[in-house]
């Protein structure tokens, strides 16, 4: 699945990172890290092994200077069916995962992207079911590619539960109010086309191609100036709910730093010289 690839700009070696766990495969390919929820026999239902791996992966994406973007997807043609209602809280059988679960504060919230979201973009590649906690994970990403056969929805209210991954707050901020309330209060399913129509996902692609499309998007992001990309994310997150005048002050503070960077000079120089820019994040 993750064979070595030759890019036009450089050759890169695909590397399986040692933060992978029995239910979470973490693979780096140059500036792109792909996080694969890997429990297809349980429709990639969330487990301790998975959430610990995801928490570590998102922390790695955030902290590693050479990483510019992450991809989140699921194995076996399934994104994520949410929490494992039968086995919630069951400790891992893996000694390293048990140790990391004790070391990472709120590993479950970090794995669910409720807390400590990376300061770098995340692209989700959604095939099959992405329901309950799966939809909450999608809502924690920045660009969302869904296959035609994907199914999304926040089922919690139907089961007498609550969307603890943050979607009671995020969905009304991300979607028009009436659509957000219908999704939250009815707990109904949404096709990929319906999800795109209300703005929950970015675009819909043929089944089996979501990951390839997400990789293409990730490559496009990785080719941009990393300081600019990360500043745009920070400004969005730091200004939610602020009046425009206050938000613009935050935007200017980050924006002028980017404009004064070596990357900004390189972008202008490359444009004048009619060549691709070589950004260093400086």
Low-confidence stretches: 1-11
CATH 2nd-level architecture of the largest domain: Alpha-Beta Complex
Helix count from the secondary structure assignment: 11
Average pLDDT works out at 93
Order of SSEs: EEEEEHEHHEEHEEHHEHEHHHH
The CATH H-level superfamily of the largest domain is: 2-enoyl-CoA Hydratase, Chain A, domain 1
The best one-word shape is globular
CATH class of the largest domain: Alpha Beta
**How would you characterize the largest beta sheet?**
7 strands, mixed
Measured distance between first and last alpha carbons: 34 Å
What labels describe this entry?
282 residues; alpha/beta; 2-enoyl-CoA Hydratase, Chain A, domain 1; Lyase 2-enoyl-coa Hydratase, Chain  A, domain 2; 7-stranded mixed β-sheet; 16% strand; globular; Enoyl-CoA hydratase
Written description of the protein model:
GO terms for molecular function: enoyl-CoA hydratase activity. Its EC number is 4.2.1.17. It holds the Pfam family ECH_1. Belongs to the enoyl-CoA hydratase/isomerase family. One of its GO terms (biological process) is fatty acid beta-oxidation. The chain has 282 residues and is α/β, with parallel strands linked by helices. It has two domains: 5-222, Alpha-Beta Complex (2-enoyl-CoA Hydratase, Chain A, domain 1), CATH 3.90.226.10; 226-273, Lyase 2-enoyl-coa Hydratase, Chain  A, domain 2. Helices cover 41% and strands 16% of the residues. The chain has helices at residues 48-63, 95-103, 107-111, 133-139, 167-174, 177-186, 192-197, 210-222, 226-239, 244-259, 262-273; strands at 5-6, 11-12, 14-16, 24-29, 32-37, 69-74, 122-126, 129-131, 143-147, 151-153, 190-191, 203-205. Helix 1 crosses helix 2 and helix 5 (167-174) packs antiparallel against helix 6 (177-186). The longest helix is centred in the N-terminal third of the chain and has 16 residues, at 48-63. The chain is globular, with a radius of gyration of 19 Å. It starts with a strand and ends in a 9-residue tail after the last helix.
């Amino acid at each position: 699945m993750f064979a070595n690839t030759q890019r036009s700009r450089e050759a890169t070696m695909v590397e399986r990172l040692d933060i992978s766990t029995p239910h979470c495969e973490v693979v780096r390919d140059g500036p792109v890290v792909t996080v694969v929820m890997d429990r297809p026999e349980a429709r990639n239902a969330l487990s301790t092994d998975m959430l610990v791996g995801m928490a570590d992966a998102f922390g790695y994406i955030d902290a590693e200077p050479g990483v510019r973007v992450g991809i989140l997807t699921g194995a076996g043609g399934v994104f994520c069916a949410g929490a494992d209602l039968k086995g919630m809280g069951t400790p891992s059988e893996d000694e390293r995962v048990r140790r990391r679960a004790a070391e990472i504060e709120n590993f479950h919230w970090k794995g669910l992207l409720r807390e400590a979201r990376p300061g770098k973009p995340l692209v989700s590649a959604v095939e099959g079911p992405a329901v309950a906690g799966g939809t909450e994970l999608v809502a924690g990403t920045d660009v969302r590619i869904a296959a035609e056969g994907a199914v999304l929805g926040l089922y919690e209210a139907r089961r007498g539960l609550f969307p603890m991954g943050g979607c009671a707050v995020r969905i009304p901020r991300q979607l028009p109010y009436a659509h957000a309330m219908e999704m939250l209060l009815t707990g109904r399913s949404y096709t990929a086309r319906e999800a795109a129509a209300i703005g929950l996902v970015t675009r819909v692609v043929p089944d089996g191609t979501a990951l390839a499309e997400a990789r293409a998007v990730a490559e496009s992001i990785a080719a941009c100036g990393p300081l600019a990309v990360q500043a745009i994310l920070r400004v969005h997150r730091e200004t939610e709910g602020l009046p425009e005048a206050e938000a613009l002050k935050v935007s200017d503070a980050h924006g002028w730093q980017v404009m004064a960077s070596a990357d900004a000079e390189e972008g202008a120089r490359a444009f004048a010289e009619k060549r691709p820019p070589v950004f260093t994040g400086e």
